[in-house]
Amino acid sequence: MKKSMFMTIYIIPMILISPFIMTSSNSWFSIWFIMELNLMSFIPFIIFFNKFYKELSIKYFIIQAISSSFFIFFSNMMLINFYNFKLIFTLMINFSLLIKMGTPPFHNWFINMMNNMNWINCLILSTWQKIIPMISLMYMFNMYLIYLISVLSSFLSATFGLNHQSIRIIISYSSINHLSWMLMNLMISELTWLFYFSSYMIINLSIILILNKFNIMFINQFFSLKSNYKMNFFILFNFFSISGLPPMFGFSMKWISINYLNLNMIQPILIFMIIMSSLTFLFYMRIYTNLILNFKSTNKMILFNKFKNFDTFINLFFFISFFNLWSMSIWIY
Question: pTM for the complete prediction?
Answer without folding.
Answer: 0.87
